[in-house]
Amino acid sequence: MFMGIVATGDKARALSSSTLPSEFFEDVDNEILEKNEEENAINDVHISSQVGYPYGIPQAIKVLDSLLEEVPEASLLYFFSMKLLIDKDKRIVFLSTNPNIRAWWLKMEMKESSKFCSLLGIEISTMRLINAIHV
Q1: pLDDT at residue number 116
Q2: 12-32: buried (b, 16+ CB within 10 Å) or exposed (e) per residue?
Q3: How far is CA 46 from CA 35, 49, 51, 88, in A?
Q4: Domain region containing 97
Q5: What is the per-residue pLDDT for 16?
Q6: Which residues 6+ apart lie within 8 Å of 110 measured at CB?
Q7: What is the model's pLDDT at position 46?
């Protein structure tokens, strides 16, 4: 497309040139660049922390912790629930469910998980413990 075209002058560079001379950037305002970099860093932190996102993992853990009477902190159900809530869709269902049935829903998820494992022929002693949970 550009065959036969030749660039000339002090700002012309060949493909083999790896750096541009410092005078090439004389008209760039470094203060604007630094301010933009700071704003981008702030925006990145804001987006990554999901401030205001009602279905985040921290919110789900707070709700799970509020169920300590039904889901004791050192129980198998508690740790199963923490793993379950890593899944975004499961987390949204958990947080959107009526608070009166959240613990029941977690127990049903755990029971369904143990049924799936037994269908695959997985015999794990913890799976037997899961089946012992009264729903």
Answers
A1: 65
A2: eeeeeeeeeeeeeeeeeeeee
A3: 17, 5, 6, 19
A4: 57-131
A5: 54
A6: 76, 77, 80, 81, 84, 130, 133
A7: 43
pTM > 0.70: yes or no: no
Asked if residue 86 is part of any domain, the answer here is yes
Length reported for the chain:
135
Closest CA to 12 of 4, 24, 3: 24
Cβ atoms within 10 Å, residue 5: 6
The amino acid that residue 91 corresponds to is R
Place of tokens 């932190």: 45
Six-digit token string for 128:
């037997």
Residue 48 lies in a domain: no
- Condensed to tens digits (0 to 9), the pLDDT of residues 62-104 reads 999 999 999 999 899 999 999 999 999 999 999 999 999 999 9
Establish if 75 belongs to a structural domain.
Answer: yes
Phi and psi at residue 46, in whole multiples of 5°?
Answer: -60, -45
Higher-confidence residue: 103 or 44?
A: 103
Residue 16 lies in a domain: no
Q: Look at the chain and report how many structural domains it folds into.
A: 1
Residue 11 phi, psi (nearest 5)? -100, 5
